[in-house]
Amino acid sequence: MNKEERILNEFLVESFNEILKVEEAALKKGKFKNLSIREMHVIEAVVKNEKQGKNTSSNIAKTLDITPGTLTISVNSLERKGYLLRERDIHDKRVINIYTTDSGKEVEENHAKFHENMVKEMLDFFPEEKRKILMEAVVELEKFFKSRKKVD
């Protein structure tokens, strides 16, 4: 790797890991200590799919890019903890719909506020002229990662 590649690689790896650590620490400080960050992201995906009326287990698994079996394991745990409910579809008994409970909605609202605050703090860190450059770079990075996802 050349110097640019090494710097970018370190930035991506360290930033990804640091964001997960910060998210996990925020969860552990609050009243939702019994959740892992992975479980939080499952709840987040359920809420997103619920809002779109697409809260079937298969749609949620696709959103998370995991297998239905992996989702089932997480949903079992989150159902026991009182964050999610699972029900068979009334029109098609083969379909399983997943819903958030009031506790699930509450934890997702807290998590959304956490992200909102983190993004605001991050943007406030940059002077206005550098913020514009950052946003242009982020848009290009997003395009790159989405194009890679289609290839793989």
TrEMBL record:
Family as reported in the entry's similarity comment: Belongs to the SarZ family.
Main location: cytoplasm
Subcellular compartments: Cytoplasm
Residues annotated as domain HTH marR-type: 1-143
CC annotations in GO: cytoplasm
Keyword terms of this UniProt record: DNA-binding, Transcription, Transcription regulation
Gene Ontology molecular function terms on file: DNA binding; DNA-binding transcription factor activity
Pfam families: Staph_reg_Sar_Rot
Keyword presence, Transmembrane helix: no
SUPFAM superfamilies: Winged helix' DNA-binding domain
Protein name: HTH-type transcriptional regulator SarZ
